[in-house]
Design a protein that fits this description.
Strand order of the largest sheet: 1-2-3-4-5-6-8-9
Radius of gyration: 21 Å
Distance between the termini: 38 Å
Shape: globular
Helix content: 25-40%
Number of domains: 2
CATH architecture of the largest domain: Alpha-Beta Barrel
Bound molecules: ligand G3I
Order of helices and strands: HHEHHEHHEHEHHEHEEHEHEHH
Strand content: 15-25%
Amino acid sequence: MMKMSTFVLRRGVPALLAVSLFFSCAQEEEMEPYESDGITLAGSFDEYFDIGAAVALGVNSFDSFNTYEDSLLAEFNSFTAENEMKPSVLRTATKGFSWSAADRLVAEAASRGARVRGHALVWHSQTPDWFAKTAANKEAARQNMKDHIEAVLARYDENEVYCWDVVNEAISDGGDYRKTDSPWYTIYGGPEYIRDAFQFARDANPDVQLFYNDYNIVNTPKQDMIVKMIEDLNLIEDGLIDGVGIQAHWNINNWPSKDTIRNTINRFGEMGLRVHITELDLTGRESEQPLLANRYRDIFEVFIECSEYIDSVTFWGVADDHTWLNSHRGYPNFPFVFSEEHQRKTAYYSIRNLVE
Ligand code: G3I
């Protein structure tokens, strides 16, 4: 017989639905609430870097703050909106603003003493067409970008959102600017939009840290081009960029290698840039799950080794019950250190034990 004291329905389930769920499928909904053992990842890694998580605030029908126990969320001291601070959510077809979800994230983080990484100001994806694609000309698009960046940075000061991914994914995997599939590059006729974005952000609030963020940065052609972009646009010389966000959508088996990760972090660190690991998750088949703990241990060993350059490590989700990878890959993924049932996995201890 199930103990009532351990029966927990996910918060946010409406009362009527909750009652019917209780009688119809109580067994499936039975969950032990997350219980802290008094130690958190954020606390454990305190002297190295922040431990963050991407959170959803309802846009894709999932609400992290209504789903996860406070004690589970307390494992993290930094949050990033998975979608809710992107132009597609902040802005409407009529160019108005829709702040409610983003405001809520800022309030939730503040009430937990956590920081917020802003994601993302300028991107080719999840951006209404009027920004650039259907703008009358380059000047109109530039003005739209300026208005957006100024409004967002006026809404949230550096204490509320301490850094932003100013430009996201501007470089192709082949090692060139993303051109025809970027409405920004297309309407500008070149990469100057990237510099404009950093300049607008810096001018709007010089106390906010500004990042370039991308995936597959560990791959040489792309990495070389990102370095070239930063140099060609004089982003460091002109004081416009603080760091690089290395999205870590990596594999559970052996890609990328420890050496590749180390070399990538060191390369940007030696350029004088801060490094944020921004979107950590490890994709793989269920059969590969036994590899997860050792793989996380290896990866965090490198992060600790390179911690003089790293300020933040953010998982692209909290626990295995919510990950973009399931729809993206088309099969179930279990990429995090907390399980679908909101419990610590072996992988959790494999990283925490490195510093405890
Ligand atoms: O908003 C629409 C909604 O109106 C519609 O009913 C619904 C139907 O599917 O779709 C909703 O849009 C979805 C959106 O998330 C918001 O929920 C898109 O289909 C879905 O594709 C989108 O996925 C997001 C993806 O970015 C879009 O590129 C993922 O949740 C999010 O995890 C993912 O995050 C990106 C980072 O921002 C940048 N780096 C890569 C990373 C993974 O793709």
